[in-house]
Specification:
Elements (H helix, E strand, L loop, with lengths): L1 H8 L3 H16 L16 H10 L5 E5 L2 E4 L6 E3 L4 E3 L12
Antiparallel strand pairs: 1-2, 3-4
Length: 98
Amino acid sequence: MVCAVIADFMQTDSFRNAIDQLMHMARRTRCALLCAEKHPVDCHRTLIADYLTTIGVCVLHLIEPDSTADHQLNPAARWDGVTLIYDRSGQSPLPHGD
């Protein structure tokens, strides 16, 4: 539910303005988004990382002091050229009965 709310917020001008501010800062210095969650898949930051990845930003997750991971785009996500949409399902279709 929370991820759906955040994914919806990502379609707003407020989100795009915040991304623009982040990109402006990142052009001047290194930036980090922090959260209490250790693993990216457990955190809303992964949605932001998905968005940044689709616009060509290299996202690196800091897992431990000596451990990092490149961001992997969520397989449910697709970029339509303007927005990031989470509508791909990883579930196989059910077989049709004969």
